[in-house]
Amino acid sequence: MAYRTDRAALSAAAIDDLVQERVREGKAPASSWAVLTPAGVVATGDAGGVGPATAFRVASCTKSFTAAALLQVVEAGGLSLETPLDEVLRVRVLGASRAPTLGELASMAGGIPVDDPWADRQESMPADVFDAMLEDGVRLVREPGTRYEYSSFGYAILGRVLEVATGTPYPRLVTERLLEPLGLTELAFDRSAGVPIAPGHARVDGEWAEQPWATPGAFSALGGIVASPSGLARWAAWLASAWRPDADDAVLPAAARRLMQTPVTPVPDADDRAYGYGLVVEEDPRHGRVVSHSGGYPGYGAHMRWHTASGIGAVVLENARYSGATLPATRALSLLLDSARAEETGDLWPETVAARDLVEALLRSWDDDALDAIASDNLGLDETADRRRRAAEALAQRVGLPAAIAPLADAAPWSDSPAHLVWSVFGERGALRCEIRLTPVASPRLQTLVVRLG
User: Fold this and answer.
1) What whole-number distance in Å separates Cα of residue 275 and Cα of residue 223?
2) pLDDT computed for residue 59 by the predictor
3) CA distance 303 to 288
4) What is the DSSP string of 132-167?
5) Tag placement on the chain: N or C end, fewer CB within 10 Å?
6) 246: pLDDT strictly greater than 70
7) How far, in Å, CA of 297 to CA of 208, rounded?
8) What are 285-340's pLDDT values in tens digits?
9) Are the CB atoms for 305 and 333 separated by under 8 Å?
10) Under a CB-based contact definition with an 8 Å cutoff, are residues 134 and 91 in contact?
């Protein structure tokens, strides 16, 4: 299936509305976003006055950097994904017959129980304290390799594995082996790097309260990176580029990056989702494989996601504790893919095609009588003609519609029946996503008319 990646920037207005709504509704003091395609970062925006260059802690999105660094060491022959943990670190395993392998830890199958609230508060732990904790004992809840169990502690352990294997502290390792070679200057581990960082917040008695800052330490490998939205989007674009024929580079081979984005450990009760290595892999029912990772931290929320077939993706970063940035990022990618998808609609009713043509004409010059001529009686009851007209005219003016109506094949159409049609109208400053549905009678009439930013 083909996707018009050049159309991605036209969804900027709709995505900006999503993010502005997050701040208006009090989900976070500030929210910032970026859109990526194979051409790079094509659109950014923010709400809450932070500015596009401001960085946020990306929390568990950091796990993708840890997994990439691990695969670099594996590619160099220093370790294997099958290497047992206790061959690298002095660790006492409790509750299982053996230690997990590095690959099992990286794919969330290490048997360590869910530990986010605790692990998220341990970032600054010194390495010697961490080592003593491992020697004292790591308690598992099941045999390694038997079932998915999301463990941030497991990624902290992998960070220590990398330090022991390379002789380099984790923040410096990632900086020297990933950030600097890829030119990701907007990413860092601490305030001392000179990157402007939005302070993290939490709701306390109905007010935003700034949260304490954690300096790098033994748990940084699970969530310590800070990044601007465009910086994290450029990291995501590099990972997404692994699916292109020209993807190889000296930082990490395309095959290793594709391995990160390959299902390894199925997520229980989610038939369409699995964990790869540092990334979540899922199957969208309309668009196919989508790769992502969320981040939640005291003071921050983050989400990055992209579509492997097209390389289109979205990043949303927020400065509120566990804010749920997954929701706006997921909606953003759906908007992007729906507007970029090039798809045949099958056999539409002639009345459906005619209704689409009329809606296109109405968006350029509204005519109540023309709409009444094809509308079913519910349309006016569901929303008054005056409100419908004012909303449509405001949206059309916002995106700057051209005079000419594009052929349906060029309008990213989608349909679930001959009586239904969704399509995009592309303007100079954005795009509209329109949907119509006709009644199931001998002479079909328009029962659904939706026009929104898309």
Assistant:
1) 17
2) 97
3) 19
4) HHHHH-EE-SS-TTSS----HHHHHHHHHHHHHHHS
5) N
6) yes
7) 15
8) 989 999 999 999 999 999 999 999 999 999 999 999 999 999 999 999 999 998 88
9) yes
10) yes
Residue type, 266: P
Tally of residues, the chain: 454
pLDDT bucket at 343, cuts 50 / 70 / 90: low
In this structure, how many other beta carbons lie within 10 angstroms of the beta carbon of residue 92? Answer: 12
Structure tokens at 259: 């391995």
The DSSP output letter for 60 is G
In the structure encoding, which two tokens stand for residue 276, read together? 């790869």
Does 108 have pLDDT greater than 90?
Answer: yes
CATH number for the domain whose boundaries are 2-339? 3.40.710.10
Ranges of H-type helices in 45-183: 62-75, 102-106, 116-119, 127-136, 152-166, 170-174
Domain ranges of the chain: 2-339, 350-453
3 state SS for 210-261: ECCCCCCCCCHHHHCCEECHHHHHHHHHHHHHHHCCCCCCCCCCHHHHHHHC
The distance in angstroms from the start CA to the end CA of the chain is 20
Euclidean distance between CA atoms 68 and 75, whole angstroms: 10
Q: What is the pTM of this model?
A: 0.90
Furthest-apart CA atoms within the chain: distance in Å:
79
Closest CA to 109 of 56, 147, 66, 166: 147
Judge contact between 48 and 29, C-beta under 8 A.
Answer: yes
